[in-house]
Design a protein that fits this description.
binds pyridoxal-5'-phosphate; single chain; transaminase activity; 40% helix; alpha/beta; three-stranded antiparallel sheet; Aspartate Aminotransferase, domain 2; Aspartate Aminotransferase, domain 1; transferase; EC 2.6.1.-; seven-stranded mixed sheet; pyridoxal phosphate binding; aminotransferase
Length: 397
């Protein structure tokens, strides 16, 4: 007899967490590891947000709240989405969860029946596939190529649609590529999907505030798909609040209610203190996010500049988030005399062991020729990390 369910046996461990754990291990042994695996801002949560949380504690705001969050927070989120994203939403469309991760699994569990197909834009965020698997759905991959800035071609989306398609999921800005879809590009997707009344769009906008080059656009603002779009967002990346665990969806009321029902059985509302902090964040002065964005832009340009004399690492220009996802397939089959590099995972292990630089390979993101470099790290670390990487890569012949 098996101890564990088939469900969990088939589930992959998060690759990003696995590489981060290996880096920590080496660090604990005393090695000077530069960790560029991280998917989180290296900034502290702003003071005004922390103050709101302290006040909530002192005022004993420590009881269960309504499952989708206190009304004030849902109203503030809806107001933000109307103002910044032109979404036609009210508090009743908002469900706040324990991180956008929970928002995503709620949504997938609310929509997907066994056998339903979910079109996933690749490279994709690592957790989409396991979440679809948990719902017994089937992921159908539509790939964006590096030559095209990792953007999915609308025709490929059209070709992937079948009578079983229930949803489409993507992130923009993308983790792991930093790709940002423009209003025109999103309109092309919306126009393709609009005639299919049974297809829902899950738009993961968690990196919304970290966009460098263009005005941000939300697909849920288009009239022809607004009743079938679930917009996912949260506080982790935009307000440097990863540990507070606050994410949300804006969805048609039937779907929002279904997510509240699921969440009501799993976890109930997210932490009451964190809700007060999120309320302060979203209603407060967001100039902090502008400063953070400037720092990421400077670091993006720094990393691109450091790599520009290394054409064997194929790059492109990310327009958002804090990742570079270069193609490193040039090194496959090369060796330093001891180790032969077969794939991106081997290359990451080589760089970790030989250069003490921790990165994540692209396999878990659906791109086996790539590695992910997070530039959510101090400038000096990026300079030193890329220097060490280049030295180690130069030894591969
Ligand atoms: N979506 C994307 C694309 C992400 O990169 C992340 C975090 O890494 C999440 C969702 C989940 O964010 P959280 O659960 O911290 O709100």
């Amino acid at each position: 007899a098996h101890i564990l369910s088939q469900r969990v046996v088939e589930l992959h461990e998060s690759q990003t967490l696995e590489m981060a754990a290996k880096a920590r291990q080496l660090k604990a042994q005393g090695f000077d590891v530069i960790n560029l695996t991280l998917g989180e801002p290296d900034f502290n949560t702003p003071e005004y947000i922390k103050e709101a949380a302290k006040k909530a504690i002192d005022e004993n705001f420590s009881f269960y709240t309504p499952v989708p969050a206190i009304l004030e927070l849902r109203e503030a989120i809806a107001a933000k989405l109307r103002r910044d994203n032109q979404l036609d939403v009210k508090a009743e469309n908002i469900v706040v969860s324990t991180g956008a991760k929970q928002s995503l699994i709620n949504t997938i569990l609310a929509l997907i029946n066994p056998g339903d197909e979910v079109i996933v834009f690749a490279p994709y965020w690592v957790s989409y596939i396991p979440m679809i698997q948990l719902a017994q759905g089937k992921a159908v991959i539509v790939e964006g190529k590096i030559e095209n800035g990792f953007k999915v071609n609308p025709q490929d989306l059209q070709n992937a649609i079948t009578p079983k398609t229930k949803a489409v999921i993507y992130s923009s800005p993308s983790n792991p590529t930093g790709t940002v879809y423009s209003k025109e590009e999103l309109k092309a997707f919306a126009d393709i999907l609009a005639p299919y009344e049974n297809i829902y769009i899950i738009a993961d906008e968690i990196y919304e505030y970290i966009t460098f080059e263009r005005n941000y656009w939300s697909i849920g603002a288009f009239e022809n798909v607004k009743n079938r779009t679930i917009t996912v967002n949260g506080f982790s990346k935009s307000f440097a609040m990863t540990g507070w665990r606050v994410g949300y969806i804006a969805a048609p009321k039937v779907i929002a209610d279904a997510c509240t029902k699921i969440q009501g059985q799993f976890t109930s509302a997210t932490c009451s203190i964190a809700q007060k902090a999120a309320l302060a964040a979203i209603t407060g002065d967001i100039s902090f996010t502008q400063e953070m964005k400037k720092a990421y832009l400077r670091r993006r340009d720094l990393v691109l500049d450091l790599l520009k004399d290394t054409p064997t690492i194929k790059t492109y220009v990310p327009q958002g988030a804090f990742y570079l996802f270069p193609d490193v397939s040039y090194y496959f089959g090369k060796s330093d005399g001891k180790t032969t590099i077969r794939n991106a995972y081997d290359l990451c292990m080589y760089l970790l062991n030989e250069a003490y630089v921790a990165l994540v390979d692209g396999e878990g993101f659906g791109a086996k020729n790539c590695i992910r470099i997070s530039f959510a790290a101090a400038d000096e670390k990026l300079v030193e990390g890329v220097k060490r990487m280049k030295e180690a890569l130069n030894r591969l012949k």
